[in-house]
Write a structure and sequence with these properties.
297 residues; alpha+beta; Methane Monooxygenase Hydroxylase, Chain G, domain 1; 2 domains; 5-stranded mixed beta sheet; 5 strands; 14% strand
Length: 297
């Protein structure tokens, strides 16, 4: 006969849990929250007849601000979720998909699949943003603010990585603890719920791999930006060097004919000025032709 059939799910606010007359399970979860401090701890722990733990998500790249956090307790009768913080109503919207007292498997799918879907959308948006940024760099549209944008993306991906890894560790903990009890008669999860958690674990692992790929792609974009900036700087320096080299012979001519010695034949020559002017233009044109031939500019 299949175990744990027909278990329900309840979702409570933290303030509601504090004020109500609590059952032993609710009291256990409340004391666990006080003891574990979910503001600093994310994971799962095992008691003899239940699993309890906590998870959270941050807002943007601010590592100090958690936009959503919750604690849960899972036993043979029900899945109890206590919402500790939900600034953007993320957990409320997800948990509202099925009614109070819904089957545990249905509620698990609604909540966890919703969280995974939102995380997947954020990763896809970041991937598109990085592709557009890379195309702009390759196309020569270089902005001095790109370094700041790359740094902000790096911070954001780091926060996501930590959130996803903590969430993955929690799911792995549930699967690992349940695996230890599979040979006993005190299994907390039935086969359907255990299958859900194994699927979530695989999806989260794939999500963390995608996040790591974006992080590595960001490193390549930073290298491409540095290369593009170096190329642009070298191109400008090359232009300045070429212009300086072209007009360098004029400095020699000016210095030579600026000595004004009495024995210089061009000094009192009627066409001396025209001769030096023509010589200067000829030298500039010769240098210009030479550098163009060598494709130096």
């Amino acid at each position: 006969m299949e175990q744990n059939k027909g278990r329900s799910t309840r979702i409570l606010e933290w303030e509601e849990l504090q004020k109500k007359n609590r059952s032993p399970k609710e009291e256990l979860l409340m004391q666990s929250v006080y003891r574990l401090e979910p503001a600093y701890w994310v994971g799962v722990k095992l008691l003899e007849e239940c699993l309890y733990g906590a998870f959270c998500f941050h807002r943007g790249a601010d590592v100090k601000r958690r936009v959503a956090s919750a604690a849960f307790l899972l036993d043979e009768q029900e899945f109890l979720l206590v919402i500790l913080k939900d600034e953007n109503d993320v957990l409320h919207r997800l948990s509202g998909g099925s009614g109070e007292g819904a089957e545990m498997e249905e509620k698990l799918e609604t909540v966890f699949e919703g969280l995974l879907k939102q995380a997947k959308q954020k990763v896809e948006e970041m991937e598109k943003y990085l592709i557009d940024m890379e195309q702009e760099i390759v196309g020569g549209r270089i902005s001095r603010n790109r370094n700041r944008s790359i740094f902000e993306c790096k911070r954001l991906l780091t926060v996501w990585k930590n959130d996803y890894m903590q969430f993955l560790n929690m799911i792995e903990g549930i699967n690992g603890l349940e695996e230890k009890k599979k040979d006993t008669s005190k299994k907390i999860l039935n086969e359907e719920a255990a299958c859900y958690f194994r699927i979530y674990e695989n999806k989260l692992r794939h999500l963390t791999e995608e996040n790591q790929f974006l992080y590595e792609e960001l490193v390549h974009i930073r290298e491409a930006l540095d290369a593009a900036l170096s190329y642009e700087q070298n191109r400008i320096m090359k232009l300045f060097t070429t212009v300086t080299t072209i007009f360098m012979p004029l400095s020699l001519i000016a210095g030579w004919y600026g000595m004004n010695f009495e024995g210089m034949p061009e000094l009192h020559w009627r066409y001396g000025y025209g001769f030096v002017s023509a010589l200067s233009v000829l030298v500039v044109l010769a240098c210009f032709w030479f550098f163009r031939k060598k494709k130096l500019f």
